[in-house]
Amino acid sequence: MTQESLSELMDKRRAAIDGPDPRATERQHAKGKLTARERIGLLLDEGSFQELEQLRRHRARGFGLEDKKPYTDGVITGWGTVFGRTVFVYAHDFRIFGGALGEAHADKIHKLMDRAIAAGAPLVSLNDGAGARIQEGVTALAGYGGIFQRNTEASGVIPQISVMLGPCAGGAAYSPALTDFVFMVRDTSQMFITGPDVVKAVTGEDITQNGLGGADVHARTSGVAHFAYDDEETCLEEVRYLLSMLPQNNRELPPSEPCADPADRTTDVLRDLVPAEGNQPYDVREVVAEIVDGGDFFEISAGWAENIVCALARLDGQVVGVVANQPRALAGVLDIHASDKAARFVQFCDSFNIPLVTLVDVPGFLPGVDQEHGGIIRHGAKLLYAYCNATVPRISVVLRKAYGGAYIVMDSRSIGADISLAWPANEIAVMGAEGAANVVFRRRIAEADDPDAMRAQMVKEYRAELMHPYYAAERGLVDDVIDPAETRRVLIGSLAMLRAKHVGLPSRKHGNPPQ
């Protein structure tokens, strides 16, 4: 290689890194946004990034594109490491064509996704683009189709994480929706199918971009986003943390780490943390914190469907998925959103060999016309299907009450939980004692001289006969009634026993889960 050719190569690479216009970088920073390369630098271990097709340029003609052929074509692709493990990444470069997707741009992403699937390593997309490149017409739309197809092929094979760091409109929003987790940054990232102008023209509603599809909207109202943060630096650091808890692919176990928290640590505070009265609220996250290593857990969709908690944590250094009813919100009932949230989390954990720990304190499904008309039956069936279909180790713990169909759905022994445990104050029944007495002893109560006294007596008898803490254990529906202080130790011991669990499944193309 001559000195001239080497110098030319270095000039081209420098142009690819700097971008076509220094002012574009200034404009990006003025919006409070980092450049694509700065974002990759925060996500990956220092010095680990290996770029692919840095000198790629589009081949489109017309509409002035032949005079604008910047290197990278508006997307940076490659791989590096996060905590020493390989991760593939692509990042839209908003400085070039507003990050819009064209034929060459899409082809780079397709190749990267194919490599990630073949290598069996996570894929992270850093999204900041203006959608399809209008000047390239239908070829740009076809590029999105190729991305969606590969998102689907990779689903359940490698972890896929979408990080929204700018606008994402129209069909482009469907790729993040197909991935496992969506991160957003407040004020700078938005997702919507039709923008505010179209909404106003069609419906007359006047709304801002953030009001329509901002981070908090999707993290709290729609459930599209799993995480929302105030700045890009925090967001990308949390992506790194999530990756540290995930396996590289569906053929591996999640990474373990040394644990300084004793496996046999007792948690005496749990004996008093959960009120004995079934209608008294408490924060189940405090229970989770007492049980898991160092009190540390990573909650998924914390702002949406708050009546159920889904989190990744570690027990004795091993990653587990925790699903827990949250009595502090809607008394911990299951409703449409809670069922959807938990079902997808259970499916994710099962896809990537993450054992499930379910903490049960559920009074039932949320009653109401809106819930029934909204399809609570099929939404609840999603959670039921997810648990029944899961082959990872599954342990459930009834903390206090477990009533009706919601008890069955929350990974009861009857739908395949490997180990079913309960605390001494548990109440497992078809319904609460008051409601049951009103049904079973309706005539006797109505005919009594003092209906209220008779009702109280019947409630007491029903609770003593059918709802005492050992009723389910005596019938083999609960494996053991344990001291709450021993919960951590028992869970760790049970998970160790189940670590080599193997389940043979019937031959089928795939199941047909509830819609």
From TrEMBL:
Bias-annotated ranges (Basic and acidic residues): 9-32
GO cellular component terms given for this protein: acetyl-CoA carboxylase complex
Residue span of region Disordered: 1-32
PROSITE patterns tied to this protein: COA_CT_CTER, COA_CT_NTER
Pfam families: Carboxyl_trans
Domain CoA carboxyltransferase C-terminal per the UniProt entry, residue ranges: 262-497
Residue intervals of the CoA carboxyltransferase N-terminal domain: 1-258
Superkingdom of the organism of origin: Bacteria
GO molecular function: propionyl-CoA carboxylase activity
Name of the protein this chain belongs to: Methylmalonyl-CoA carboxyltransferase
